[in-house]
């Protein structure tokens, strides 16, 4: 049985990769509290519909990062199993959103059943496209970034064709609630959807061996095959689940605007999703992963964005500032820097042991 010291050491070793996103979030929190002590204050207000809602920068961060967090969850699985990244997630979300709107516009009125049918259709559509990407990667062994470049190139054109080139408006209290607030619930609906997706993956990892199998495939496919694990099946499943995440994100995006714009829906979100995985301490080469790290990475990116806007940085300059900070975070979380910190720690520990031994000898 492990002692308390051994248990603490094991806990810190297993969660060491969360150190970078936690430090980054902590520094952003401290910086904002020094700059503006009320930066993270949350207040209960009333919106235009007369419903109580929570407002404040903290809510803006949690709400604004919702689509990115969900995409980062799926991207983590693809990265772990396939050892590469999907650069078509924004385009696939646009395709799913277009399919969702197409179903909504097929009825005389937008009813709860029609919304449910639209959601199921957009999920199936996105998962089929995800399976297409997964087949190219797992069966034909094409590098993930190259395989998904196909959908990245043509995805928004497909979204354009689904609705005949139009940008139909879907005004409905139900759709408005998906992207905003459920009447009587002060928490933004996208935050609640993120919680649901988090619970879904937590249950999957808790009651199945999917997470372990994906890590095994990402670490060593040959060893996985010898142990009866299908590398093709695990990679395909990862891309299908990422497709599901794209569908959910696309529905949230449609709910926010109450229309579908294939050109702007989650535009350029792919790079942020990959960065969220990297900032979360996950290896972009595949293998062991922690989804909570990617979630923290997504919130770190959004917190940085909100901070820059609060500092009156222009929208054209925000990307440049974000790039500088993200480079620092990625470098700090790189294997080389981690190895250096590990060597320094070992030297300090060895000196401490030598000093203690000298005192005992004296």
Written description of the protein model:
The structure is a single chain. This protein has 362 residues and is an all-alpha fold. It has a single domain (24-343), classed as ABC transporter involved in vitamin B12 uptake, BtuC (Orthogonal Bundle), CATH 1.10.3470. The chain contains 17 helices and 2 strands. It has helices at residues 4-14, 19-35, 57-64, 66-82, 89-104, 112-138, 144-147, 149-162, 173-179, 189-207, 210-219, 221-226, 231-257, 269-279, 291-310, 315-332, 335-361, and strands spanning 43-46, 52-55. It has a two-stranded antiparallel sheet with strand order 1-2. Helix 5 packs across helix 13 and helix 15 (291-310) packs antiparallel against helix 16. The model has no long low-confidence stretch (mean pLDDT 90).
Fold blueprint:
Layout lengths: L3 H11 L4 H17 L7 E4 L5 E4 L1 H8 L1 H17 L6 H16 L7 H27 L5 H4 L1 H14 L10 H7 L9 H19 L2 H10 L1 H6 L4 H27 L11 H11 L11 H20 L4 H18 L2 H27 L1
Antiparallel strand pairs: 1-2
Helix pairs in contact: 2-15, 3-15, 4-10, 4-11, 4-13, 4-14, 4-15, 5-6, 5-8, 5-13, 6-13, 9-13, 11-13, 14-15, 15-16
């Amino acid at each position: 049985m492990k002692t308390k010291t051994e248990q603490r050491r094991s806990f810190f070793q297993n969660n060491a990769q969360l150190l970078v996103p936690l430090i980054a979030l902590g520094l952003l929190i401290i910086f904002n509290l020094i700059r503006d002590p009320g930066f993270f204050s949350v207040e209960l207000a009333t919106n235009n519909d007369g419903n109580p809602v929570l407002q404040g920068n903290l809510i803006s961060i949690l709400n604004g990062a919702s689509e990115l967090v969900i995409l980062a969850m799926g991207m983590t699985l693809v990265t772990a199993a396939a050892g590469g990244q999907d650069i078509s997630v924004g385009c696939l979300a646009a395709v799913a959103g277009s399919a969702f709107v197409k179903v909504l516009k097929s009825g005389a009125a937008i009813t709860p059943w029609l919304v449910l049918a639209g959601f199921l259709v957009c999920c199936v559509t996105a998962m089929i496209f995800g399976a297409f990407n997964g087949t190219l990667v797992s069966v034909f062994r094409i590098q993930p970034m190259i395989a998904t470049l196909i959908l990245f190139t043509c995805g928004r054109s497909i979204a354009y064709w689904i609705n005949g080139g139009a940008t139909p408006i879907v005004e409905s209290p139900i759709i408005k609630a998906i992207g905003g607030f459920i009447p009587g619930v002060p928490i933004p609906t996208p935050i609640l959807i993120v919680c649901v997706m988090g619970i879904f993956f937590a249950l999957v990892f808790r009651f199945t061996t999917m997470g372990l199998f994906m890590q095994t495939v990402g670490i060593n496919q040959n060893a996985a095959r010898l142990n009866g694990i299908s590398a093709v099946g695990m990679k395909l499943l990862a891309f299908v689940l990422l497709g599901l995440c794209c569908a959910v994100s696309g529905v949230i995006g449609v709910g926010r605007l109450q229309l579908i714009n294939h050109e702007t829906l989650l535009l350029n979100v792919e790079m942020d999703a990959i960065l969220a995985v990297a900032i979360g301490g996950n290896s972009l080469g595949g293998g062991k992963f922690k989804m909570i790290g990617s979630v923290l990475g997504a919130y770190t990116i959004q917190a940085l964005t909100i901070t820059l806007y609060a500092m009156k940085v222009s929208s054209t300059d925000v990307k440049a500032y974000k790039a500088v900070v993200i480079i620092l975070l990625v470098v700090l979380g790189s294997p080389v820097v981690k190895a250096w910190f590990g060597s320094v720690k070992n030297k300090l520990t060895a000196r401490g042991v030598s000093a203690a031994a000298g005192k005992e000898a004296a």
